[in-house]
Amino acid sequence: MNFVFDLDGTICFDRRTISADIKEILENAPKFGHRVVFASARAYRDCIDVLGNQLAHNLVIGLNGGLAYEAGDLIFHQHLEKNAYDLALSYCHNYQLPYFVDDDFNYASFYDQKIPFIKSVDPLNLAQKLAIDELYNPIKMVIYMGEREELVEEFCHDLLATKQLDVDYHAHEKCLYLNPHMTNKATTIVKMLGKNFVTFGNDKNDIAMFEASAYSVQVGEFDLLQPYADEIISTVDLRQKILEVFERFS
Asked: Which CATH number applies to 82-180: 3.30.1240.10, 3.40.50.720, 3.30.465.10, 1.10.10.410?
């Protein structure tokens, strides 16, 4: 069976590490006859240090489905359409909105100290921070709206009208997340694996993944995810639950 794990808030709780006992279980998944896959909003380069050398060679779906790496090689990517991307950039520059943009491996940013995950970007110094006009194949864009929240509704309306973007506002971060239209964790997982997978997740961007999976386990109590979960567990039960579900689907 394929087992798909979100990272932050699911198996990683400090944006830097996965506990040694959880890593050991995941590394031993083949002994149960299973394949472990990771699906994250992070770029692949930002997953490597957290996962460690062994797990980072598994299939890793990053940027909310915008790309996939396996054995350290890029095997899939879906870029933002130029018209929609240019519109988003023009808004950001006109209103001085902080943003962060990823391509297949590198990134560009503007006033990035406002981006909530900035301290987790490229911890191994593997990528290049490029000027925005040097980033030719953007995949995911995050825009901080915390100082101009009155623009969120208008901005979302105009971006969605292009029919080239998936737009999601995370109110707790005050950030807009832009991905290519009809591209998310679930679409890329199904493209790669079909629907025969079990998933562990914790947050809003795991909803589509839960809907597409054969079985789903929610870690934590995020309200909007609960209707889609087959089981809901606390973080303290995570190790035992992974083992239990590995055994159940052996």
From this structure: 3.30.1240.10
**Residue 229 CB partners (closer than 8 Å, separation 6+):** 210, 216, 217, 218
CATH number of 2-77+184-248: 3.40.50.1000
Task: Please state the pTM of the whole predicted model.
Answer: 0.95
Give the angle 212-101-94 at the CA atoms, nearest 5°: 120
pLDDT tens per residue across span 46-64: 999 999 999 999 999 999 9
3-state secondary structure of 168: strand
Taking CB atoms within 8 Å and a gap of at least 24, the contacts of 234-237 are 235/13
Domain ranges in the chain with CATH number 3.30.1240.10: 82-180
The strand order across the sheet containing 73-77 reads: 73-77, 67-70, 60-62, 35-39, 2-5, 197-201, 215-219, 231-233
Nearest to 62 by CA among 76, 43, 87: 43
